[in-house]
Amino acid sequence: MKAPPFAYVRPATLDDVLAELAGGDAKVLAGGQSLVPVLAMRLGRPATLVDINSVSDLHGLEAVSGQLRVGAAVRQRTVERAEQARAVPLIGMALPFVGHRELRSRGTVVGSLAHADPAAELPAVAACLEATIEVAGPRGRRSVPAAEFFAGAMTTGAGPDEVVVAARFPTARPGEGFGFAEIARRHGDFALAGVAARVRVDGDGVTDARLTGFGVSDRPVSRDVTALVRAAGEHEPELRAATAELATEVVDTAGDAHGSTGYRRRLFGVLAARELARAVRRARSRQEVPA
User: Would you indicate the residue range of the signal peptide (predicted)?
Assistant: First the structure.
């Protein structure tokens, strides 16, 4: 199918972008890898597409003050290959699962967050790392925690007259380890179930552990699993018993032709146990060596 008719504008400044969004029924176009299929299937009919690729302020990628700041027009493939992005290992683990290389060459990190597909990898990364989303609108700029940004399937905390301008991911610290995995019918397909894990350790053991599931609800679902991981450590059989129980709480998506709710719960439990165990081992290997 072809998209319905729309007006196309390519502003050069953020102020001009906001002026276009204030005019009524408009959608932001960055990489287009989520929006264009929606238009082609006529699931969306915006009157205007506002292309933000000429706004130079939105192309920044920098690691500063313990955070990796990714501008709204930065391609996923750019982040995948960027030296400074290695400071956030979980992004590097997740990006190879995002579509295919050709799609990542156009798709943007922030665009994936703004699209808020519940089966997408990058929203789960943002939720697991407790990233911050920068939003600009007619009332000024504001920073939204990832936990508050994802409001539901394809729904975020950004208003129709606002634009997401960047995302800030905390960089990894010594004693911090990560895990990421998903199950899909084919590489590049939407995940039937997936997990992102972050674990922190010190000389006394696990101090913090966070687990995020995706493809299992209408948004990324995060849980503090510190007590669970502290009790089981990196022993996957013990972790699996606990994550199987957790799956009954976290996985609430309805079954479909690709997998029942019960099947997704089993996937979540197995993946969660495996990746938490890996995250613990990686965290221990990254501990600072006393001088």
Answer: none
